[in-house]
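User: quick one
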Amino acid sequence: MTGKSVGILVFPGSNCEYDVASVLEKMGVRTQLIWHGQTDLGGVSGLILPGGFAHGDYLRPGAIARFSPAMSSVIEFAKSGHPVLGICNGFQVLTEAKLLPGALQKNARLKFLCQEAELEVVSTRSSATSLAESGQRLFLPINHFEGNYTCDNDTLNELESNNQVVLRYVENPNGSMNSIAGICSKEGNIVGMMPHPERASDDLLGSVDGLQIFKSYVSNLM
Amino acid sequence: MRFQAKVQVWLRPGIADPEGHTVSEAINALGYSGVSTVRMGKIISMMVEAESKEGAAAKVSEIASTLLSNPVLEDALVQIEEA
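Assistant: Done. Structure below.
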């Protein structure tokens, strides 16, 4: 058991917090659920924003969540270099909070996607892929309606040239620019991804590829 | 004074609008011709207390840009009328 613990942020409408906690606990990492209304992050060493439908996804996914009381602490925590991982809805919250550039637009062809996706690890300088190999393939489930990564051309060029693209779809399922499935901040500690690694972290679930993400993430706890 | 504010939120030009595209295809499928450039947006209406129309506009514009629209994807258009 490591002394470090991971905070999992819970908004009204989050629904993957226990899945994430279960994976981390099995890895021997303590977790604590952090309600969005509190500003005290409880001395955690890293934060995960899980999937779901924070505040019903009203207005836009993440639009209301980014103004939750906890978010000012999350922003400060992320800017101090701690690993912060947003999965699916958590990624949408991180873009709305401007901790990551761009936005997640409705999928091309308005298709809700719930399927396995083949992904290529692009950058290994992110806190969620530091133990993976560039070019490595991972099979992870995706489950979203708004996962179509969009940004302006300058931002896209910057992401590519700074090696901030973390994961790319091998076959673009949702219209994302440059098939982007996940990105990181310039410093690499803040990561957002649409695929759900927690749903591919046990043999019972048919894949353990997601553990690659969590092992990397845990190795970067500070 | 009391004002009626309406905020229109539109996807910015150049941003793919899959909803608008789908509605456009449905219009064509119904046999209508000469209809193009279908765009989907939303209207958010609210009542606002302010000293003046300009004050109401400033307040609603701030709300529109911080919460109601995401400038990466959307433009917001604010309209104010005396209630």
